[in-house]
Amino acid sequence: METLQPVQEQKANRLINILSLAIPLAVAILLGIRQKIDLGYWTTYLPHINGIVNTATSVLLIVGLYFIRQGNVLAHKRTMLTAFGLGSFFLVSYVLYHLSNESTPFGGEGWIRPVYYFLLISHIGLSIVVVWFVLRAVYFALSGQIAKHKQTVKYAYPIWLYVSITGVIVYLLIKPYYVH
């Protein structure tokens, strides 16, 4: 027989589920808006900042894994929460860029073109999926549900690391085509 979750956990799960749907939906809607908002020239630097943020996130994810394997829970927690904060910053920065700038088309030709699009499509698809896993992993960790945290991280960690690393690779591949 299934037991009822406490009200607080039900609310947390509801919020995680709502955010996991609302964030990708909001990004898709914002990307679909043809009329761009002039937020200033500074927004043209956001892809480069995002490349740095994704690189830092990738490094932090690897360092966080190292810390937990060494049994340093406090350093792991700080590292992973910093990675989560950078991911949140990235999302805001990404939205601001695409709200105010046209998407940059990839100009590469030959064998690199299908490689780029494979990385881009897998990156985008998994970035949608990873939101739910990461939010659950963070919630379970912060609420002291370590067994559930570990179970969720089995999926969240490799997906998040892949999304972070492919974000850097996609950025480096499209970087020559940014106009400014």
Textual characterization of the structure:
- It contains five helices and no strands.
- The chain is mostly helical.
- The chain is globular.
- The model has no long low-confidence stretch (mean pLDDT 92).
Write a brief caption for the model.
This protein is mainly alpha-helical. Helix content is 77%, strand content 0%.
Tally of structural domains: 1
Query: What's the gyration radius in Å?
Result: 18 Å
The quaternary structure here is single chain
What's the order of the H and E elements?
Answer: HHHHH
Structural class, from secondary structure content? Answer: mainly alpha
CATH topology (fold) name = Four Helix Bundle (Hemerythrin (Met), subunit A)
Query: What's the CATH superfamily, by name?
Result: Cytochrome c oxidase, subunit III, four-helix bundle
How many runs of DSSP E, i.e. beta strands? 0
> What's the overall geometry?
globular
Distance between the termini: 61 Å
Write the layout of secondary structure elements.
Blueprint: H1 7-32, H2 46-69, H3 73-100, H4 112-142, H5 146-174
Helix pairs in contact: 1-4, 2-3, 2-5, 4-5
Transmembrane segments: 12-33, 45-68, 80-100, 115-135, 155-174
Pfam families: DUF420
Protein name: DUF420 domain-containing protein
